[in-house]
Amino acid sequence: MKLYSLRVPYKGDAKAVLLKAAYDVSSFSFFQRSSVQEFMTFTSQLIVERSSKGSRASVKERGYLCHV
């Protein structure tokens, strides 16, 4: 299993705020990297905003597994 993204969000009352993020998109082609990173950013932001504070979840999206 390969880790492509590690993000540390803070979920306040309104929106989740990103504290730190790291990405490894080197296994994707040069022209796909920005799209893949944008997909991971959007998906993780959406999952964090829709989940409750302190909860754990695993979401499968487009063949990728996201853990919150």
TrEMBL record:
For this UniProt record, the keywords arranged alphabetically read as follows: Lipoprotein, Membrane, Methylation, Palmitate, Prenylation, Protein transport, Transport
Q: Where are the transmembrane segments?
A: none
Q: Which PROSITE patterns has this protein been placed in?
A: LONGIN (PS50859)
Name the membrane topology term: Lipid-anchor
Q: Name one GO cellular component term.
A: Golgi apparatus
Predominant location category: membrane
What GO annotations for molecular function exist for this entry?
A: SNAP receptor activity
Localization of this protein: Endomembrane system
Family membership noted in the UniProt record: Belongs to the synaptobrevin family.
What name does UniProt use for this protein? Longin domain-containing protein
What is the source species? Eschrichtius robustus
Q: Which lineage? A: Eukaryota, Metazoa, Chordata, Craniata, Vertebrata
